[in-house]
Amino acid sequence: MSTTTTEITEEIQEQLNLSAVLMENFRKNIKHDSWFGLDPENENHKYLAKKLLKTYDIKSARELRNSVYAYEIIRKTSNNFRNIACKLRIYSEDEYNNLLDNQKYSIDRNYYRIVWPHRFSLFRTSLAGYDLAMAIFLLRMGGAAGFINETEMELRLADISASIKKDFNDWDSFHENVLIGHQFMTANMAPDVAFYANSEQSALQSLRYLKIINPHWFTQW
Questions:
Q1: Computed from CA positions of residues 73, 74, 75, 78, in that sequence, does the dihedral angle turn out positive or negative?
Q2: Are 22 and 203 in contact (CB under 8 A)?
């Protein structure tokens, strides 16, 4: 790994850790205590970051910033989740079961199944934790791809972190939201399913690993 020019303080490390589960789920041997997790001066790492970003139609710095805006400000995942929750909040259990029976595609049925138990509890925050974790994840991959630098990263981390702490009181509630968001995005009823191409472990396994290896990271908010 190359030496970074900007110091990673304890506060910045905490902010970087907001993306740690998604980073670990993407690839083992991520360097969590670095700005980008991968080394932008390593051509293989740079290739991996660009390959991942292409799956989100991100091929430039401008497209990276647009995508981060969609997660950080528009909250694209949260909006999709809330739209389904709005619909399900007025359904009785019998109506909900009829809705499932009438779905042609299993993916649509799974969306409803994932949202149903959270239609009230997550109506306010929706999947804000997941959206903001994704924003940081994409920024770190963008840094590894050479699209942004540490100075911009530091400014964006502070802004996103402040938004997260308005909605969540502790690491556990934040991580729970990230895991539900991960499950919603896969539309899979198994919460352990891996999301990223070439992922070597699931998001839940990633969280367990991180809490075992670095328990001090997630003890205080």
A1: positive
A2: yes
